Amino acid sequence: MPSEASAHTPALLVIDMQNTLVAMAYRAAGTVAAIARLQERARAAGAPVVLVQQGDEELEPGTEGWRIVPELAPAPGETVVPKAAPDSFLDTELDAVLRARGVTEVVVTGFATEVCVESTARQALSRGYDVVLVADGHTTSVRPGPGPYAAPEASVAHHNEIYRNLRYPGRRVRVLPAAEVDFGGGAPAAAG
To answer: What is the Cα–Cα distance from 187 to 35, expressed in whole angstroms?
Structure first.
């Protein structure tokens, strides 16, 4: 990664926002809307938008459930990175795609907070990227009732708080609401 302080190139990373997963997501409509606004702003600023798409026995490539939700569909020329593990970098072209575009910071959004979003954000830090976790741009599954997993609202809040206090030497880690994310095109857009 470039070591110059002036070299700042963000990219929006949209993880696993696929029909089957969004159908089971906590606050799905609000999360999709927040990410859609981020996509618009990233595109307007000329920042890369990279979508990551899980493919496995439960999300079989080519099926309707595997497809990215229509509201977040890639624009012509945008990269969709297929993956088969929670870590979006593992055995994928994600790192090469980001490096080829000179990306120094990933703006992380998607599903599921404690699995693919968490795994990818930590790997991004380990690979030298700065990270913005979008506080209202990641979500997890709705839980059927009391059990060993944290409630979805608690899981999202928990991860936001961890990232607010996470320190990686030489990296910038931030948690911002979607309305405050700046892709370098000036002031952040107002919430809407």
So the answer is: 18
CATH class held by domain 10-180 = alpha beta
DSSP line for 117-156: IHHHHHHHHHTT-EEEEEEEEEE-BPPSSSSSSPPHHHHH
Is 16 designated active site?
Answer: yes
pTM of the predicted structure, to 2 decimals? 0.91
Q: What is the largest CA-CA distance in the chain?
A: 49
SS3 category, 159? helix
**Among the options 87, 95, 116, 130, which is catalytic?**
116
Residues 6+ apart with CB under 8 A from 162: none
Question: Residue 179 phi/psi, 5° resolution?
Answer: -65, -20
What is the SS3 assignment for 27? coil
Q: What number is the average pLDDT over the span 64-77?
A: 97
- How far apart are alpha carbons 39 and 58 in whole angstroms? 27
pLDDT tens readout for residues 155-192: 999 999 999 999 999 999 999 999 999 998 544 444 43
